[in-house]
């Protein structure tokens, strides 16, 4: 049975590319559930699948999803006990953020990073639209970048409009499968077009009233890049709900906490109210950013 890679998902139909580069339109064979993962979409862009042609038709059916190297998931918007798989088998996640037009909260960024950490996916954070930032907004972006770099994340400003530092992002993405994610309106499609103009993805506008983006990418899709590698363009995400993460391991998903938590007096320290907590001490001493700790506390509350 042929093996192919899912390069586009529309919910009920999938485009699967075989080893020869031919793209087939496929549907699922019956109901599929994978490795016990409760998901609204059992097949995702990036999946390797077995498929076969339907008799007397030009379409195919997906028979099996092969073992995944990784996935990145979030809580389903409509079904709290289900996940939504954003992409599978990726080399890195590139989170596109903005400090204005629209603003990306640190809570959203940190939830994304925590999920990527849980699935051992390297993350890059780029702050787009720096050409629009005033002095205060630039200082804000620089502070966030400084903190994330100190933790170990590659992070920098870019401009899809002017091309500022897009060559740096291109070097990071070369010959890798990169997921592009972020809110609607942060410029994912515009940045993709700047990196590879041949993609010619549709670019949206920002609402003047709410300063929020309008969806232009409807379905997740993988595209080859002219400089090598692939990009997975995804619809904008309004909220990033954590799925299947346990409270007793959450701190391990924060690299700066993971490095210090063995110094806590109690091995089962939650880093919320216990005495002699190395994490709380580090926050007081400004070793750990207070807003990162606050984001951790908010996740624990959820």
Question: How would you characterize this protein structure?
Answer:
Helix 1 crosses helix 8 (290-301). The radius of gyration is 20 Å and the shape is globular. The longest helix is centred in the middle third of the chain and has 17 residues, at 135-151. The chain is built from eight helices and 13 strands. It has three domains: 3-65, OB fold (Dihydrolipoamide Acetyltransferase, E2P), CATH 2.40.50.140; 71-233, P-loop containing nucleotide triphosphate hydrolases (Rossmann fold, 3-Layer(aba) Sandwich), CATH 3.40.50; 247-301, Ribonucleotide Reductase Protein R1, domain 1. It has helices at residues 106-118, 135-151, 166-173, 188-195, 247-250, 255-258, 278-284, 290-301, and strands spanning 3-9, 14-18, 23-28, 48-53, 60-65, 71-75, 83-88, 92-97, 123-127, 154-157, 177-181, 221-224, 230-233. The model is unreliable at 206-215 (pLDDT under 50). With 302 residues, it is α/β, with parallel strands linked by helices.
């Amino acid at each position: 049975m042929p093996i192919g890679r899912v390069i586009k998902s529309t919910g009920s139909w999938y485009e699967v590319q075989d080893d020869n580069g031919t793209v087939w339109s496929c549907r699922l064979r019956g109901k599929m559930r994978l490795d016990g993962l409760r998901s609204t979409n059992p097949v995702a862009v990036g999946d390797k699948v077995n498929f076969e042609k339907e008799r007397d038709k030009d379409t195919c059916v997906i028979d099996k999803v092969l073992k995944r190297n990784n996935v990145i998931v979030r809580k389903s918007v409509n079904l709290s006990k289900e996940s939504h798989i954003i992409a599978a088998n990726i080399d890195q996640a590139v989170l596109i953020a903005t400090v204005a037009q629209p603003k990306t909260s640190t809570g959203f960024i940190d939830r994304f990073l925590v999920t990527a950490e849980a699935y051992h996916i390297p993350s890059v954070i780029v702050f787009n639209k720096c050409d629009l930032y005033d002095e205060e907004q630039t200082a804000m972006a620089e502070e966030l970048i400084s903190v994330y770099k100190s933790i170990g994340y590659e992070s920098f400003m870019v401009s899809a409009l002017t091309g500022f530092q897009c060559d740096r992002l291109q070097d990071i993405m070369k010959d890798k499968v990169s997921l592009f994610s972020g809110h609607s309106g942060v410029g994912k499609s515009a940045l993709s077009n700047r990196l590879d103009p041949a993609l010619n993805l549709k670019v949206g506008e920002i609402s003047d009233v709410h300063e929020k983006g309008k969806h232009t990418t409807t379905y997740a899709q993988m595209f080859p890049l002219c400089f090598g590698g692939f990009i997975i363009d995804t619809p904008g995400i309004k909220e990033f709900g954590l799925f299947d993460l346990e409270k007793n391991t959450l701190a391990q998903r924060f690299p700066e906490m993971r490095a210090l938590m063995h110094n806590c007096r109690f091995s089962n320290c939650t880093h919320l109210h216990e005495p002699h907590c190395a994490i709380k001490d580090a926050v007081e001493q400004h070793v750990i950013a207070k807003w990162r700790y606050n984001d951790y506390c908010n996740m624990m509350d959820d």
